[in-house]
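Tutorial handout. Part one gives the primary structure; part two gives the three-dimensional structure as tokens.
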Amino acid sequence: MNIQHILSEKIQHAMVLAGAKANVEALVRQSGKPQFGDYQANGIMGAAKKLGVNPREFAQKVLDQLQLADMAEKLEIAGPGFINIFLKPNWLAKQAQHALNAPKLGIQLPQTQTVVADYSSPNVAKEMHVGHLRSTIIGDGVVRALEFLGNNVIRANHVGDWGTQFGMLIAYLEKMENENATAMELSDLEAFYRAAKEHYDSDAQFAEKARGYVVKLQSGDEYCRTMWKKLVDITMQQNQQNYQRLNVTLTEKDVMGESLYNPMLPAIVEDLKAQGLAVEDEGAWVVYLDEFKNKDGDPMGVIVQKKDGGFLYTTTDIAAAKYRYETLKADRALVFSDTRQSQHMQQAWLITRKAGYVPDHFSLEHHNFGMMLGKDGKPFKTRSGGTVKLADLLDEAMERADKLISEKNPNLTPSEKAAVVEAVAIGAVKYSDLSKNRTTDYVFDWDNMLSFEGNTAPYMQYAYTRIRSIFSRAGIDEATLCGEIHLTEEKERNLALKLLQFEEAVTTVAKEGTPHVLCQYLYELAGLFSSFYEACPILNAEESIKQSRLQLANLTAKTLKQGLDLLGIKTVEKM
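Part two.
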């Protein structure tokens, strides 16, 4: 149940009846402080200002029109014109009971959309490194939330599978095959790429052949396309292993590489010329944007075709946006890439709109993120200063988690331990990233991410198993619980209210691309359950109270498990 949405609609209606404009916003928010109620409507003053009336007097008019008798036990005007809303315990209990028994924890699915999510985007013939981690796991967390809410999500893994370097790579693959050295793992492809580059730089005959293969590949030559496809397949097979280890939902079917849009590029540039948007400048074709200024204050030029006839990433991103609207019939297109690409994306999409390739209602959203830093505050590198391979990072996470779990619980069976180690290792790496606001840089710290204290994956996973142990120790099957939920204590009420705010957190992630909101919600929920558990005896309580509190515990466990699953983080029944 999205209480915030329900209250916003009711207050909006009351504000209109009180004389506000129909398009005024209610701005209902969780108050965060019990003395100010559960929610606070603080859009009253803005509406009163537009009407030219006293805010407190207008707030009273809104209260007179407000129909909240079924939900609220108290409404009060506070400060210059806020309305504080205190919800009824009986109403909260009834909604919690519904959430426990209903599919998807009682979440009401909004009007659904078709959403294209562009994330991960590794490069062909290169191994995935930590630079791909944030896009991959942030994008996947948002995709999971969107699908949970019933949206049709199209994953687009915008793989770097096109460009002049492929002539060099094809020529070197041919050389390797002629020398019967074709058994390549992706770890070898790092060396393969370097060797190809060395041959290109030092062997004029090889370089000439490579340049010829670029032309042939781009003109559709069957041999070159076959060799190119081998490189793509080898790369993506290995990347898929990383996705599976990370519990990321991308598959081979989701690859939509740069090559997909290549046939569209000449026609797009010709159309930009015909519309007068692209003009010639020293042999290149450039779109000048008044909305962006260079250091001299002149309109910034964005090249869409180089003077040698080649296209740029901007042209590809224009084509991608056009394709996602026209061919994939999307309502929203999300791109997850780092903040340094923000201006590039804004310019590409501005050109897309100026050219009329997408309508105003088609939402183009760049969900940008900051850098992963080491403890020294510099970009995260190996000790020798090299790029950290993603597979190596995950291997180290497994080693550290194995040591941690061995010390914490040596009594686990080998199969139990293996499941816990994997869940904690991968969960820690992902949660450490997802729990930070994506727009900021964050410091990668093994000690913090593997701690059982604070807002970490191990803490959240342990919070879940702790609740499950209540049932297992007492030999109680949650399916046999009966009676109704009653909220007589403050800690019970606080827990129930937080449980009913799950939909608000998930909806925010889907709308704004902010998984950290869900992490913070789950962390607060775990803390409130801990307070409830300490203050409210469960197994020793009178039977009806025991049944009520067990149902609250069960709903908490379900919510934690579902929330972590939306983040792509596994739970275990025993730790």
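Part three, for discussion. The chain has a mean pLDDT of 93. The longest strand covers residues 284-293.
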